[in-house]
Amino acid sequence: MKTQITAIAAAVAFAMSSAAFAQYSGGSDSYIYQSGNNNTNDVTQWGSQNSRIHQQGNYNSATVSQDDISGVATTLPGLNDSGIEQFGSGNSADVTQLGTKNDSTVYQERLFNSATVDQEGYKNVSVVEQIGYYNDADITQSGKFNDSYAYIEGFGNETTVNQDGFANKSVVEQNGAFNDAEINQTGSYNDSYAYMGGVRNDAVVNQNGYSLESTILANGDHNTYDVAQSGYGHDSYIETHGSYNNNTVKQSGAFWGQHTSSIVTYGNGNVNTVSQGH
């Protein structure tokens, strides 16, 4: 399982380091830099485009919509790249991307910020990093081979990931206290990885479909982790280091559903509950 921890850390590090994605010829570039408060940005692009927004201040908003349709013909459908950086409080970032191989990066610091990413298509990548308090991140992906990476640091933060389709991957890492993570996956061969560090954090994983995998690795006390899997051939692995944690796994489907649940706990006063079958 140490190799799996390393794999998760490497995946997040790789995603975070690729903020400057490759740009494609033939597209347009939009760059916006703002310093101040109560600013609004709306960027709409068609074709293979690049958008960069940097905002420093409070109560700013950034909205980016990128589509893979460009006039009559598009030689490179999708291939859009959106990067948003916001430093301050009360900021919002909204990204919508349609098509193939789109990339979205959102970075937010401080308080009461929100990030919403909606990607539909094939081989899309979403990276959300939030550092501070009471921030919200909502990532929705539908299609095939989509990846979502969310790194959250602070307390009172909420992260929601919804993925629908085939061979999608979600990686959520939260460090701090009173953080919530919810991962919902529907389809086949989807993977969910969650790493939680701190106290009084909650993680909920809901998976429905065929051959799904959930991994939760946690350090800290008084945390709650719930995994619900329905369908056929699912795997759940939970490993916690700490005390007074509650781990619950519910795997439903036919009695021959071939589900596997593994729980490893280190510490005192932990409670593990597993339910398998109908």
Overview features:
1 helix, 64% strand, mainly beta, Curlin subunit CsgB, signal, eleven-stranded parallel beta sheet, Curlin_rpt
Low-confidence stretches: 13-25, 69-76
Outline the biggest β-sheet.
11 strands, parallel
- In the sheet with the most strands, the strands line up as 1-3-5-7-9-11-13-15-17-19-21
| Count of extended strands | 22
Structural class call reads mainly beta
Protein name: Curlin subunit CsgB
InterPro entries: Curlin_rpt
Family: Belongs to the CsgA/CsgB family.
GO cellular component, one term: pilus
Describe this structure in words.
- Helices cover 6% and strands 64% of the residues.
- The chain is mainly beta.
- The chain is flat, with a radius of gyration of 19 Å.
- 43% of the residues are buried.
- InterPro entries: Curlin_rpt.
Please give the structural blueprint:
Elements (H helix, E strand, L loop, with lengths): L1 H16 L11 E7 L4 E7 L3 E7 L4 E7 L13 E7 L4 E9 L2 E9 L2 E9 L2 E9 L2 E9 L2 E9 L2 E9 L2 E9 L2 E9 L2 E9 L2 E9 L2 E7 L4 E9 L2 E7 L4 E7 L7 E7 L4 E7 L1
Parallel strand pairs: 1-3, 2-4, 3-5, 4-6, 5-7, 6-8, 7-9, 8-10, 9-11, 10-12, 11-13, 12-14, 13-15, 14-16, 15-17, 16-18, 17-19, 18-20, 19-21, 20-22
